[in-house]
Amino acid sequence: MALAFKQETFRNDYKYSNSPNAIKRFPFPFAEDQYMYSVNIEPHVKGKQGSVCEFPFDVDEHYVGECLDKQITLDLDRGRYKALPHMMDAQWDFVELTMDALSNDYPEHFSLKKDGLNWTWENKPLNIKQSFVFGDASTMPMEPFEFMSRQVQGDFVLLDQRDETLYADAGFVTSQADWSLAFDVGMSWREWHAPVPRATELGVMDRALKYLLNLQLGSPVRRLNWTMTVNPRLDTSPENYPLWGTDRNTVNPDNVADKVHLRVELQSLFRLPRSNGIVFSIRCYLMSLKELSSYPRWAKRLHRVQKTMHPDLIEYKGMTKFHPMMVEWLSQFDDGSAMAVGTQPE
Amino acid sequence: MSMIDIKVAAVEQVTPLVKHFTFVKKDGSPFPAFSGGSHVVVSMNVGGRVHRNPYSLMGSPADTGVYHISVRKQEQSRGGSVFMHENVEVGTSLQITYPVNLFSLAKKAHKHILIAGGIGITPFMSQLIDLNRLNSNFELHYAFRSPEHGAFADQLKAICSSKLHCYADSKGERLDLLALLSKQPLGTHVYVCGPNPMVVAVIETARNLGWPENHIHSEQFLSLGIGEPFKIQLAKSNIEVHVPAEMSMLEAIEAAGVEADYLCRGGVCGRCEVNVLESDGALLHHDHFLTDAEKASGKKIMPCVSRARCDRLVLDL
């Protein structure tokens, strides 16, 4: 099925919306009425046809718009891309993983020809054609990890495994939910998770680390994370906080359903073969409350989840300013009757 | 667990005790690339019972057409290495896991000292290719019984030239660990793979010289050996399992049809860790994974290598 890519913007005039099909396949994360942190990691196996997990890397109608937004963000701040020198093997692992996946899963849009180490990559939607020698960075127009990160939706962090922990030693991060690559690069697992409230006390992070240190080649895993974002903005970085932080003050009862978006991250982790590193892929999906309410079951569920949210989490996720308005708007969908466990729409 | 179907493409007797096997994928497609120091677990059907042994990948990590392993025939084999030596020939089909690396090179090291004893040379064979490719500063010290047991010495000379130092016990050649480790610059990492006394000697020498713990790396797959038989109760499955003398607890659990998690099967990775709900005797911990405190607590056990001496042992499985 050929995808129709939309012309969109994720800043200023915010020309962004989801088609009915994009809403239907949205990875709604709440299976139960109450939310709490857990090690909700599962194998990243092939999902249902048309779902966001059908392929290792999901390409959807927002592909061209998101790649353009990545480029804008990176041009404004080169610090969004960083790779420490010992990560070059991991960079090539990433190139192989993403080129193989995209050309295999979306052959009408991407193609990869291999003749030994002489590879030719073609990306039709972005009009890129590049021949290069695999493993020789001098044959690429930029570092290989940057080259492919620009062409796959989402953020990517390359983790080096040493001393019984994982270090974030390279990254391409332009659509982050308020964390900074420039701040976190070179940090270990415990260091970069330190700000997450309640999770450390619950031992969640230690268990997740133990699990990931044993992540196997050929058996990637995934989890969903979420927050709420005002306006469909990908770049909600601390560096640019002045550009988006005050948007929270613009929410009122009349525009809350259009302005407030559920932001879901499909996080997946793949062991990399040559480097023994791990790529952490963070793919962001945005959907306004109004779009979400096209499935009243989701609106009803989100109402319960938000109504019972722990105050620490409301604060941590930056929802304090508009949280009551959001709960009030969602309440119209909640008749109080019991809901079965599950994330599916009607 | 994802497995790869393979066929044996070549078998070569390298030393009186070591055979070298070359694998290709059954469907003819390339293997995944891997990192130096990786191993695969080979599944063998030995007389109706599945044996799973870990072996280091020895070839070039960039060569995805074939995988290479070497197997030393163990004197006290429970069947795995004898099966590989006597029953596996060109054309034999086997299953292997994807590569796993529990012995990876420290990418930020300034210098690497590799110390191998006997068959312990195998994980270094692939690491050497990575070290050469990355232009790393390294030395390989390779000790063996006698020249005819120095498997791959010629191949190693070609890869390492003057960085190779061999020690044949039969000629009275000895590796002086203290002299070697006391003259290394800051930022050096040491790696050892070989018989237990050698691994212990390297670790202790380095520690005594004040090397940081995270600069000392060892790999030693424990051979399961032979123990006393005992019985276990699996709480979730609600069955009792007999663990015979020549079988590991994990193997007995699998043979009883209970799915248990595992990865290295050598007491290193921690994946098969299981909670002990009850026991009335001694847990015989043989793994390198649990901390001393965890072992002493009696609450956890690694069924791939550890055993028990008791009448009642209830596991959370």
SSE map:
The complex is a heterodimer of chains A (346) and B (317).
Chain A: H1 20-24, E1 42-43, H2 63-76, E2 81-83, H3 88-105, E3 110-115, E4 118-123, E5 128-133, H4 144-149, E6 155-162, E7 165-172, H5 181-184, H6 189-193, H7 204-213, E8 221-230, H8 241-244, H9 256-259, E9 260-271, E10 278-288, H10 289-292, H11 296-307, H12 311-316, H13 323-331
Antiparallel strand pairs in A: 1-8, 2-7, 3-4, 4-5, 6-7, 6-10, 8-9, 9-10
Helix pairs in contact in A: 11-13
Chain B: E1 3-13, E2 18-25, E3 39-46, E4 49-56, E5 67-72, H1 80-86, E6 93-97, E7 111-117, H2 122-133, E8 138-144, H3 153-160, E9 164-168, H4 177-182, E10 188-193, H5 196-208, E11 216-219, E12 230-234, E13 239-243, H6 249-255, E14 274-279, E15 282-284, H7 292-297, E16 300-301, E17 307-309, E18 313-315
Parallel strand pairs in B: 7-8, 7-10, 8-9, 10-11, 12-18
Antiparallel strand pairs in B: 1-2, 1-6, 2-5, 3-4, 3-6, 12-13, 14-16, 14-18, 15-17
Provide a concise account of the structure shown.
The complex is a heterodimer of chains A (346) and B (317). By secondary structure, chain A is an alpha+beta fold.
Order of helices and strands of chain A: HEHEHEEEHEEHHHEHHEEHHHH
Number of strands of chain B: 18
- At the fourth level of CATH, the homologous superfamily of the largest domain in chain B is Nucleotide-binding domain of ferredoxin-NADP reductase (FNR) module
The rounded distance between the terminal residues' Cα atoms of chain A is 24 Å
Low-confidence stretches of chain B: none
Write down how many β-strands of chain A occur, each being a DSSP E stretch of 2 or more residues.
10
Question: How is the biggest beta sheet of chain A arranged?
Answer: 7 strands, antiparallel
The chain-level mean pLDDT of chain A equals 92
* Beta-strand percent range of chain B: 25-35%
Strand order of the largest sheet of chain B: 4-3-6-1-2-5
Give the helix/strand class of chain A: alpha+beta
- Estimated structural class of chain B: alpha/beta
- Helical fraction of chain A: 25-40%
Greatest interface by residues involved: A-B, 19 and 23 residues
* CATH T-level fold name of the largest domain in chain B: Rossmann fold
Largest β-sheet summary of chain B: 6 strands, antiparallel
Give the termini separation of chain B: 18 Å
